[in-house]
Design brief:
Shape: elongated
Order of helices and strands: HEEHHHHEEHEH
Number of helices: 7
Helix content: 55-70%
Strand content: 5-15%
Strand order of the largest sheet: 2-1-5
Largest sheet: 3 strands, antiparallel
Low-confidence stretches: 1-26
Radius of gyration: 26 Å
Structural class: mainly alpha
Number of strands: 5
């Protein structure tokens, strides 16, 4: 009985020490440009989650510094070009939806539609009607048009310019997203060089291990062509149509 009690006390003490050690590590496990980076003090937080959070914040700081040093900031003309693309896309999208609404009304008038197909078309029809009513209210001034904030547009522009510049400088593996390619390997190398120069300091060895594993991970989708095209979407033709049902 005494041995079991002693073992329980020892285990409890070990768990308490481990929890205290992790809590201490998450108070300031890293620094970037001398600024302390902290993890969320959640009881279910893990070293891996902490490493991901630190990497996300550090990457933003380092990439913003690269953008500043290399003159990659978004210009007023670039912001206006993106605004113009968005307006043109919205106009085309509105026109497509109006035509699709008329098409759906014709299809719904067909008495031979089976019940499941009719239900599906009615649901899509209702969505398009709601969007058309909202736009009509915006035109009438009874609803406020919600535009993408300028700061968000600047971030989009700088993200594309950053990827283009990093790939031109470092090359490496290129990842793919729905919006286009990104310089996966070059972005990782930028962080590794910042670690080597102590611009990023990882003060917890466990978190550093997880962070370096994140850096070494391959993209979910990888570009397999000869040369990636980093032309941003707003400098490409607007897709002709994407409304399927």
């Amino acid at each position: 009985m005494r041995m079991r009690t002693a073992a329980s006390v020892t285990l409890a003490a070990w768990l308490a020490a481990a929890a205290t050690s992790f809590a201490q590590a998450t108070t300031a496990p890293a620094r970037v440009f001398g600024e302390e980076l902290r993890c969320e003090p959640a009881p279910n937080d893990s070293a891996r989650a902490c490493a991901r959070r630190i990497l996300r914040i550090a990457r933003d700081r380092i990439e913003q510094d690269f953008i500043r040093r290399h003159g990659l900031g978004a210009t007023a003309d670039e912001v206006e070009a993106l605004h113009a693309y968005n307006r043109a896309f919205e106009a085309q999208d509105r026109d497509q939806r109006a035509r699709k609404l008329l098409e759906l009304e014709g299809r719904l008038a067909n008495a031979d539609l089976d019940a499941s197909e009719r239900a599906r078309l009615r649901e899509f029809h209702a969505v398009l009607v709601r969007l058309a009513r909202y736009e009509a209210d915006v035109d009438a001034g009874s609803e406020v048009r919600i535009d993408t904030p300028v700061e968000v547009l600047r971030r989009w522009i700088e993200y594309w310019k950053l990827n283009d510049a990093l790939y031109a400088r470092y090359g490496g593996v290129v990842g793919l997203t729905a919006s286009g390619p990104y310089a996966h390997g070059a972005r990782a190398l930028l962080i590794e060089r910042s670690l080597a120069r102590a611009e990023i300091e990882i003060l917890d060895p466990v978190i550093e291990q997880h962070l370096r594993a994140e850096l070494a991970a391959q993209p979910r989708m990888r570009f397999r062509g000869a040369v990636p095209d980093f032309t941003p979407f707003w400098k490409r033709p607007i897709p002709a149509s994407y409304i399927a049902p």
